[in-house]
Write a structure and sequence with these properties.
239 residues; five-stranded antiparallel sheet; Immunoglobulin-like; 5 helices; 23% strand; 2 domains; four-stranded antiparallel sheet; alpha+beta
């Protein structure tokens, strides 16, 4: 078969097109980028309640029981919680009971102690309760003396306020009252009462109240005698 140069050129072009088509790579379908799943790594909400009870009368030698209630947002106690009772900066591991409430007991020395609960659990946020003061008294006598010291400090506050309104100099009395309040907070009731009694301005209010009360007591028998006298006088006048 005789082929002209035109036919040869046409076949060459077709051959080149065929080769270029078969050699060109087939583009793969593009796959979307993997989407990261939200693993919800944020800790679940939790709540914490702290309380303290005294196993025996609150005297030296009485054990204080500190309790931590660590619960989820539904109020259900978390059974695998890890709790500590922090007393005066010391971390004390609390023991979990059957009710999932953690507790720790200790015989503390006389004085004022600061404590709080610290709890955490896997999957839940860590929680700490607000620091609270726990006072261990020296003796039962101190507890009974507390009311007297508290009343003296209250009266002293009233006397100080009245003195300020009158424009009196209350600098020393304010210092004495501040020290008395601190002693009362620390459980040193005798010192609190002494600080108030030794200040003329602070003690004056209580003494004035006492004198008024004493005068009221004197009026009772005087009124009784007056009634008796009037009755006798009325009887004599009828005769």
């Amino acid at each position: 078969m005789h082929m002209t140069s035109a036919h040869v050129g046409t076949h060459a072009v077709l051959l080149l097109l065929l080769l270029s088509f078969t050699a060109s790579p087939v583009l793969a379908a593009s796959t979307p980028a993997p989407v990261l799943q939200n693993l919800n790594l944020q800790a679940a909400r939790a709540s914490l309640a702290a309380s303290v009870s005294v196993g025996s009368p609150q005297v030296y030698g009485g054990a204080a029981i500190f309790k931590c209630s660590y619960a989820d947002d539904q109020g259900v106690l978390i059974p695998l919680a890890n709790c500590s009772v922090v007393i005066d900066g010391r971390h004390n591991p609390a023991v979990m009971g059957l009710s999932a409430e953690s507790s720790y007991g200790e015989i503390l020395p006389v004085g004022t102690h600061s404590w709080y609960c610290s709890c955490f659990a896997a999957g839940y946020e860590k929680k700490e309760s607000s620091p609270t003061q726990h006072i261990v008294f020296a003796s039962q006598e101190s507890i009974e003396f507390r009311d007297q010291a508290s009343a003296a400090v209250t009266d002293a506050k009233t006397a100080l306020a009245e003195a300020k309104q009158k424009g009196e100099n209350t600098v020393d009395s304010e210092k004495a009252l501040s020290e008395a309040e601190a002693a009362l907070l620390q459980g040193n009731f005798r010192l609190a009462n002494t600080l108030v009694a030794n200040d003329d301005l602070l003690a004056g209010h209580s003494n004035t109240q006492g004198r008024i009360f004493d005068m009221g007591l004197l009026l009772v028998p005087l009124l009784f005698l007056g009634v008796v006298f009037v009755g006798l006088l009325f009887i004599f006048m009828r005769k």
